[in-house]
Amino acid sequence: MSLPPGFLDELRTRTSIAQVVGRKVMWDNRKSNQGKGDMWAPCPFHQEKSASFHVDDRKGFYYCFGCQAKGDMFKFVQETENVGFMEAVQILAAEAGMPMPERDPMAQEKADKNAELAKVTEAAVQHFRLQLKTQAAAEARAYLEARGMDAATLDRFEIGFAPNARQGIHQALVGKGMRAEDVTLAGLSTKPDDGGAPYDAFRDRIIFPIRDARGRCIGFGGRAMAADARAKYLNSRETPLFDKGRALYNHGPAREAAGKGQPLIVAEGYMDVIALVKAGFGAAVAPLGTAITEDQLRLMWRITDEPIIALDGDTAGLRAAMRLVDLALPLLEGGKSLRFVVLPEGQDPDDLIRAQGPAAMQALLDKAEPMVTLLWRRETEGQVFDSPERRAALDGRLRATLQRITDQGLRRHYADAIAELRRALFRPASQPWQPGGGRGKWQPKGKWKGRGFAEAQAPLAATRARVGALNGETLRTGLIVATCIRFPDLIDLFEPQLDRLPPRDPDHARLVAHLLRTATRDAATLLDEINASPLAPALESLLGLSHLAITPFLIGNGDAVRAEECLEEEFTKLAAARAIEEEMAEARHDMADVPDEGDPALAYRMKEALRSKHAAQNPKGEENAEQFGETTQARSAFHQLLSTAGQGKKKGM
């Protein structure tokens, strides 16, 4: 079976050889450099203890310095799985989520045709380079010299020139034995609709050959010399060889430079890439005249985990950055992201390097911002958030944006980073807060410890005494409500239990009702929302419960996992306690029919109810102040029940 052109290249783009090999070997972490894709392990093809098996993840090949085994990912699967080439392709395609193409008897013919077209484009490269040395290219040479391009740079990037002739390249290539239809099919000439003679696609333009990752010339870019040209830059049209949305300028050399440790820089155009490479930034690429596509983004991530997007400091550059953020969000995963450098307004990398030198560019690269920062700037820059409605609108936009991140773990980290940025906007670092202030506010204290909760402190004797005096259920419902305010994301998870909770404390009941109504899922915003409502006194009363200030997962940076476990435990305890109270109430009712001498079975029921209540409240057998107070109250209630029931019976007699 023949595969269609580009299928194996796409499969290589989507699959990492390090991942394929990693299923069969144990990497030597001391010798490997995962960030550079330089991996070492004991060879899976012969018995050894040392790590002589090398995988170059960026180039896609492996080699053993012991047994000389070598190949690509397809060869590795063939050798380790004992399968043929097509079976290896099927295995890797299934893992990459790529459906195998149906049998195409014309595939080999297409591949052969592409090879012929590649010969045409290579011949065109040589023709354009010769034309740059002619008298007709004098203006083009002067322009290139003014842009700082010496002979070595022109040779390195194979820069050429297309004279202002209607059939210059077409006749030259046909004269060398190329077929006229192949010259047209390669995108070098255009056949008019009226059936006339083909004319050159590039005229009076500086020519930049575009090569794929394997070094094959697949198309061209042309920079117009005439100021009134319809397009300043023109790329080859789509051809069997060239798909501008799946290619990068300077792809192969950039991949090699990135493999040696240089950062991958994504600029906007050919001249920017050339300027960066000339200045020592060899791992520079550019999309081909359009916004970065998903396929180009995957190509970049195949080269390095964190490409740096260097954008012109103008409105168009910023718009391109924001479009790229939206494109990248659903594709992000752990270790795969983007960083951004926004250049000074009105400058591109070429301008900056010529004006201030490579050091200025390096200084900007060192300060490249993570994508989350650019995302935050887009949602907040130039806006005023002086009302709950505006803040709620911001929260809604951010939630919708973060939902586009499919990796749940990464989404959680993004949410944490956004929460920190939000706190910096609404809670200045110079005024950190902690629970315990008047009117349900948060009072200043020390260094910021995260999400409005203070550093843990040892409980005071007065606190312990007060805990013993408080009603146990009030403490429990207070802890539940405070936990939901501290971790609003848990509201959705425990909504059924909250709905059935109905606290007996009226303040807690009002706060629970608000939690069930609100859509706010950010702790700082929720606090502002409650403080700005008639519920502020209820919040003040809640925060006055001293045991909240010594609950570990409510203070410092907080522990969402422990908070979730706590809610599970507290809801279970409350349900058990209320079930026992119902049992006791039923037993009290039954006492109306108990004879004077008493009912041993009923007394046993009461004692078991009390014992169950104590066990539910003290599962580890611990006897702290709160539980001792509850148990004492429960015993007193038991004796009072017996006494009341007995007196009622005597009066009834």
UniProtKB/TrEMBL annotation:
GO molecular function: DNA binding; DNA-directed RNA polymerase activity; zinc ion binding
EC number of this enzyme: 2.7.7.101
EC class: transferase
Cofactor detail note: Binds 1 zinc ion per monomer.
Zinc finger (CHC2-type) residue numbers: 43-67
Domain of life: Bacteria
Entry cofactors: Zn(2+)
Domain Toprim: 262-344
Pfam families named in the record: DNAG_N, Toprim_4, Zn_ribbon_DnaG
GO biological process: DNA replication, synthesis of primer
Gene Ontology terms: cellular component: cytoplasm; DNA-directed RNA polymerase complex; primosome complex
Cited SUPFAM superfamilies: DNA primase core, Zinc beta-ribbon
SMART domains: TOPRIM, ZnF_CHCC
Keywords: DNA replication, DNA-binding, DNA-directed RNA polymerase, Magnesium, Metal-binding, Nucleotidyltransferase, Primosome, Transcription, Transferase, Zinc, Zinc-finger
InterPro entries xref list: DNA_primase_core_N_sf, DNA_primase_DnaG, DNA_primase_Znf_CHC2, DnaG_bac, DNAG_N, DnaG_primase, TOPRIM_DnaG_bac, TOPRIM_dom
Region (Disordered): 429-448, 611-633
Similarity-based family: Belongs to the DnaG primase family.
Primary role: RNA polymerase that catalyzes the synthesis of short RNA molecules used as primers for DNA polymerase during DNA replication.
Subunit note: Monomer. Interacts with DnaB.
PANTHER family: DNA PRIMASE
Free-text comment about domains: Contains an N-terminal zinc-binding domain, a central core domain that contains the primase activity, and a C-terminal DnaB-binding domain.
The protein, known as: DNA primase
Organism: Gymnodinialimonas phycosphaerae
